[in-house]
Design goal:
70 residues, mainly alpha
Length: 70
């Protein structure tokens, strides 16, 4: 949802000051990861995913760096 994306964006941006020497881990990075997943899976397979599966895939892409915040 849009609310989830806004919360995730703030969380990912909060990592920047803690890890200044790391590569980009902002929302843009997560969007790139999602795009790579789309390319790997392919349009035909994505169309076969349920709404719940799409949500899990999207959230996985956005949250794959969550350990950086711990």
């Amino acid at each position: 949802t849009k609310d989830s994306a806004a919360v995730l964006q703030k969380m990912l941006e909060s990592f920047l000051p803690r890890f200044p020497d790391f590569t980009d881990h902002t929302i843009l990075h997560s969007m790139d990861v999602l795009e790579y997943c789309n390319m790997l899976i392919g349009e035909k397979q994505i169309e076969r995913l349920s709404a719940a599966e799409c949500y899990v895939l999207i959230m996985s892409c956005y949250l794959h760096d969550i350990g950086m915040g711990i």
